[in-house]
Structure formats: structure tokens, C-alpha cells
Write a structure and sequence with these properties.
The protein is an alpha+beta fold and 122 residues long. It has helices spanning 33-37, 41-51, 91-98, 103-106, and strands at 56-57, 65-66, 73-76, 86-89. The protein has 2 domains: 9-38, no CATH class; 42-109 and 113-117, DNA Binding (I), subunit A (Orthogonal Bundle), CATH 1.10.30. The protein has 4 helices and 4 strands; from the N terminus they run H-H-E-E-E-E-H-H. The strands form 2 sheets. A two-stranded antiparallel ribbon has the order 1-2. The longest helix has 11 residues, at 41-51. It binds zinc ion (2 copies). Residues 58, 60, 62, 64, 89-90, 92-93 line the site of one zinc ion (ZN).
Length: 122
Amino acid sequence: MEGRRLMPPTPCLEHRCPQPAVHRGRCQIHKRTTTQRGYGPEHQAARRALALTLPMPCAYGCGTMLVHGDDWVAAHVVDGDPSSARVVSCRRCNERAKGGAALGAALRPSSLTRSALGEKDL
Ligand SMILES: [Zn+2]
Ligand SMILES: [Zn+2]
């Protein structure tokens, strides 16, 4: 008679990682990496959500109207912070923001399309 057997832990999906999976097939160490990079599925989902709000003026207030298929980016409100909300921005403003100017300062809170960003479950 065999007693109750515990299920063997599912191994992490990450190549050669010996840790047991704890979240979506990944271990404690690997489960957050794509989100931390800021360019995983979360980034693509945010971009898709923002695309639904187009046409929209550039969030930096430069006056450029951003439309589908045009050059626009899903910019972080706080540049370099992957957990911050995203807004639509023209490439020029986004590059300029990376150069130092904080988007938060130039951005009017009312121009944030919170509903378009979808729910953040982080
Ligand atoms: Zn792992
Ligand atoms: Zn702009």
C-alpha cells in the first residue's frame, strides 16, 4: 500500500533552472524577469491598450497628434521605471525625456489615459 504521495514540484521553465516553479511555470527567481525588464508581455499589452486610445496628442504636450501606424511610443510616465504608467508620446519627446527632462513635470495629470492603461495587477 502506498501512502499519499506528494506531487513532485514542477521545475522552472527557465533553461536548466533547478528551482521548483511557483508562478506561471517559473521559480521565485525567474518569475519576475520579463516584468522587471519592462519589455515583456506587459509592455506589449500596454502598447496595445494605448493604441486603442489613438488618435491622441503627444502626452508631453508638444502638439503632435499621434495616430495608428504612426511613429509613437508607449512612454513611461517615470522614465526608467517599468512599473510606472504609460502614455503615448512621439519619439522626439520620448528621446528628449530620456535625456533628462522628467515627463511627470510636463505632463498634465488630466491627460493621463488611466482607463486606457488597463488594470495593473502587479
Ligand atoms: Zn528559475
Ligand atoms: Zn511630442
